[in-house]
Structure to design on (502 residues):
């Protein structure tokens, strides 16, 4: 029953991650047609700005999920106190950050390289942007609370509804009222506010909430300390993710960035699958003792690796033909090896996610933040040297090596056994073999297909062995199917022999 619910929650998280991407893909063409490229670019910048100011929620979303899950066996009144404490801290931080954006918004407009018309349209929208900050930060707490109660289907449905309305409503405003930026941003903020109300109603029922807000002052320091370390990690990790493109731009120029960023965007989508699984596991890890949580993480790691390794292998083998079909042979020739290496790095990142969330679920976000902080200087130094010597391929290789080093370090800190680390050796060898096959047969499609099928069969056979229950079910099913297809004369002959013996 627990496994079935975990599967359902993972599917819900996958849908919640993938459907907004598909919706964005569908809505971009009408947006560009109705409001133009410049206004759409300004909206994108506004979204980036909100994302940056959203950092100042100080990890209260993750704190909400962690503490409510940890008190799953406590009384409803205790969970309610935890919720209101985290919610109040978040509202204060989000409101203060929104006021800061309102105060500096006029100065930020002067920095942006936009036309005077766009600046005049955006100026009245600054209060709406400021109001959006506490909405965005509050939604993280509400979603975290639902995650802590393992209500992933409800959380994803409501957030998906919010994403849909936030993209569709401004589009309708552009159709029926016009493409003025102030109206577009105001409609997006109101749509997001409505989705926040729905999330709050869901929390009222699921936490549950019963009366007036009650804040535990003694718990405030613990939440702020937890959130502070989560914020440090949230600030540093994006720098580590984007440092390669910055260094490439400085040393190799914008064309090299293009040939690197295209496969990067493709490769990093692979982490959606393990992140969806880990998000479902997080409250289950938080409600367990340290020993039980480590045991659950070890068992879950086998499933994550078994699921993502065939996906990564197919992605490596198909990348060059896909890039050639999608963007032409020039891009494929320049980007294929980079993408293949980055797929391995993304596969490792999916493994890192589990060990990092294990540490956070047990109240040690400081260890994750310290690991990220310790990586900055050596990573930048090695990256700079690699890009100068080997170009974008060197950057991709360093990114893989950083991911491998971070995997080993976080596994050790999370007290996962050496057996957990060694379980990555075979899939790593399979992925490296896939890169070699892709490079050898890149100009021979038939050879690539033959090698790919053989390697995929080996990988799938290995992956099934990593999940004993699935392997046993498949074995029983195959045996039953074989027995059901046995010729009836065999059974008759057996009966005759038995009768003769009697």
């Amino acid at each position: 029953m627990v496994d079935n619910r975990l599967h359902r929650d993972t599917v819900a998280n996958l849908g919640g991650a993938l459907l907004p991407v598909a919706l964005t893909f569908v809505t971009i063409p009408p947006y560009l047609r109705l409001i133009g490229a410049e206004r759409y670019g300004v909206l994108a910048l506004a979204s980036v700005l909100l994302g940056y100011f959203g950092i100042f929620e100080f990890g209260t979303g993750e704190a909400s999920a962690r503490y409510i899950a940890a008190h799953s066996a406590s009384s409803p009144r205790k969970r309610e106190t935890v919720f209101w404490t985290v919610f109040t801290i978040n509202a204060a931080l989000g409101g203060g950050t929104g006021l800061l954006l309102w105060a500096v918004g006029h100065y930020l407009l002067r920095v942006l390289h936009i036309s005077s018309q766009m600046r005049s349209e955006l100026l009245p929208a600054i209060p709406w942007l400021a109001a959006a900050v506490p909405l965005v930060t509050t939604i993280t707490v509400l979603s975290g609370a639902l995650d802590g109660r393992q209500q992933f289907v409800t959380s994803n449905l409501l957030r998906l509804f919010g994403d849909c309305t936030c993209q569709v409503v401004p589009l309708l405003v552009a159709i029926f009222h016009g493409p003025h930026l102030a109206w577009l941003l105001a409609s997006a903020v109101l749509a997001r506010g409505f989705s926040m109300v729905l999330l709050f109603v869901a929390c009222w029922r699921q936490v549950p909430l019963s009366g007036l807000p009650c804040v535990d002052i003694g718990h405030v320091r613990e939440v702020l300390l937890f959130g502070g370390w989560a914020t440090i990690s949230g600030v540093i990790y994006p720098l580590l993710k984007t440092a390669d493109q910055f260094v490439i731009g400085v040393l190799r120029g914008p064309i090299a960035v293009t040939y690197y960023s295209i496969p990067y965007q493709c490769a990093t989508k692979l982490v959606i699958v393990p992140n969806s699984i880990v998000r479902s596991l997080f409250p289950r890890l938080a409600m367990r003792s340290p020993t039980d949580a480590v045991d659950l993480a070890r068992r879950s790691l086998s499933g994550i690796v078994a699921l993502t390794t065939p996906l990564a292998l197919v992605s490596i083998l198909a990348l060059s033909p896909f890039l050639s079909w999608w963007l032409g042979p020039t891009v494929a020739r320049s980007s294929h090896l980079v993408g293949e290496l980055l797929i391995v790095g993304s596969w490792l990142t999916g493994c890192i996610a589990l060990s990092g969330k294990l540490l956070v679920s047990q109240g040690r976000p400081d260890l994750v933040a310290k690991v990220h902080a310790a990586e900055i200087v050596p990573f930048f130094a090695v990256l700079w040297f690699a890009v100068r010597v080997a170009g974008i391929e060197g950057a991709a290789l360093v990114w893989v090596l950083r991911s491998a080093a971070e995997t080993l370090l976080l596994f050790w800190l999370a007290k996962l056994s050496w057996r957990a680390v060694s379980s990555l050796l075979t899939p790593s060898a399979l992925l490296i073999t896939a890169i070699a096959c892709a490079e050898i047969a890149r100009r021979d499609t038939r050879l690539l297909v033959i090698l790919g099928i053989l390697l995929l069969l080996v990988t799938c056979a290995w992956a099934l062995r990593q999940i004993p229950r699935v392997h046993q079910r498949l074995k029983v099913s195959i045996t039953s199917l074989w027995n059901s297809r046995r010729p009836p004369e065999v059974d008759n002959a057996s009966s005759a022999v038995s009768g003769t013996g009697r």
About this structure: Residues 490-502 have pLDDT under 50 and may be disordered. The radius of gyration is 26 Å. The chain is about 85% helix and 0% strand.
